[in-house]
């Protein structure tokens, strides 16, 4: 079998598919997997164990043999719990081969080989009968197939199939049931991830307001789930318009239907406001009585003592198709529609005729009609709606633009060309490279050109800004009406960027268009710098930390497997995380480690640096955080990482729209003695040939 791995190439701004050799064995997938996080989820593990013991007892009390089907066994954990609880036999199904292999080893090491059979198949391929994978149907169904949206990993079709073919009627299920909860809220912050707000620009001839085209106002957006660590959303950033309401439940001990359907609840707003967002999470009852409950409820719904940090299950943010003003006490209906894998919401006003309502419900997943939701993802919407950020760019543009400026903008889906026009540039061209990496079918769908035409039309900007659909190296003088560029601008932002420095593609593009630049060209940003800080994470460290034992079972085989994968070639590299969701404290001062001069072309040689950072605060150094800052013009910089250090304790405030790079250290050191601070030495190398940054740290 051939394995292809996708990788963004920062020197071309496009996505490339590389074929991996025989020895690849899914290292990236394992290194970045959520297994460690699940094994660290004490609350989940304890409750599963409790629920499994109770289910085995119930079956035994009926005088039956306890035959367990564990779908998606992963490390084999839940099967080992069942075997320890006295189950007679367990069929442990795992589709992902490297995991199935690990499960065999872990089961053996823990002495359960005679009680647990690991089957490396998708559950829908499993056969039952004397010659089958399973001798007989199971009477206990154990699974953990849930994602933050509950059903996004295919739990429903898997259960549907299992009830038809793999388990007995009246079987016990752990978990027994799942319930989805919702709360209607108003939140300018979260709504700013869904639609573009008007942009205000003070120009020479008065204030200009850039408005989104009308299609964007009513566009339902895209169906992909927006899952976040809602516990990091301060209560000042949203206002609850309803109580928490049960939306729907699924009983896993009975046949499950996966076909599209909808659920509807009545709501009475507790407050008047603008209904924009549905916040949602779920809980699972491990037993029929509901005594063993594992919940994802956020901090304002449950006591702090019950909070368990986890990254594999978070909370969901759903965007209503449009904003609805609602009045306290009025009768509303909230409808959840779902297909096999995803959920979406709509709000209706109460009407006398119930039947009429039913006719209203179209169980059709949302499709973006305005194209903007295909061009901009949710953090990008948030970034474009960030007025203070926009003001920085306006201030910088104002410094560099003249009435005779010929301006070229290189960034994906950027508003800079419009700002440059409003601020008086004579000619504005925009190079959209974002589609260079897309499949032709997708380009057609999202065609940036069409979106921009609608945009320009809504703002009477037709013919004012020229969109060039060419890669920078293919730019011709005719694209620019034979003029030289006097101002080259970029945010920079490119849709293929994964790590902060991938936006240095701007530098490569700038190099490629060199011959079109006037000798006196101004480049904005004039330079970029890479910054670094050593941190202690409150919780994020768990996702890359070994587990040793989990509820008494030895899972070191899994730890070793993750370690091997992290050490495999480039897997040991920085990874992107949006740190506003993952609190940490700084142990060192932030430090500038590399600078990139955009006024010059990309050099042939590598850029490297070495040095040491002192650990000034007491704490565990889990890793280094790296981010980029862009120097737009004299005294005007924007940071895609640290915004500020908020207090003496080193709490950090991060840019809420960007992911930062996190490099986890392979061992953690505790800095203790502050009079003689420990130093961490580093070596960082920017390879100008590949556009990648390699780093090494010694503690
Ligand atoms: N049960 C383990 C791991 C849960 S992660 C634990 O609780 O710690 C879910 C696992 O299920 C993944 O390893 C995934 O590969 C596997 N999986 C998901 N759907 C499956 C299916 N229908 N058949 C077999 N394996 C499945």
Automatic annotation (TrEMBL):
Taxonomically, the superkingdom here is Eukaryota
Compartments annotated for it: namely: Cytoplasm; Nucleus
Q: Which GO terms describe its molecular function?
A: histone methyltransferase activity; protein-arginine omega-N monomethyltransferase activity
Q: What is its EC number?
A: 2.1.1.321
Per the record, what are the reactions this protein catalyses? L-arginyl-[protein] + S-adenosyl-L-methionine = N(omega)-methyl-L-arginyl-[protein] + S-adenosyl-L-homocysteine + H(+)
Top class in the EC scheme = transferase
The function of this protein is: Arginine methyltransferase that can both catalyze the formation of omega-N monomethylarginine (MMA) and symmetrical dimethylarginine (sDMA), with a preference for the formation of MMA. Specifically mediates the symmetrical dimethylation of arginine residues in the small nuclear ribonucleoproteins Sm D1 (SNRPD1) and Sm D3 (SNRPD3); such methylation being required for the assembly and biogenesis of snRNP core particles. Specifically mediates the symmetric dimethylation of histone H4 'Arg-3' to form H4R3me2s.
Q: What is this protein called?
A: Protein arginine N-methyltransferase 7
**Organism annotation:** Peucedramus taeniatus (Olive warbler)
The gene for this chain is: Prmt7
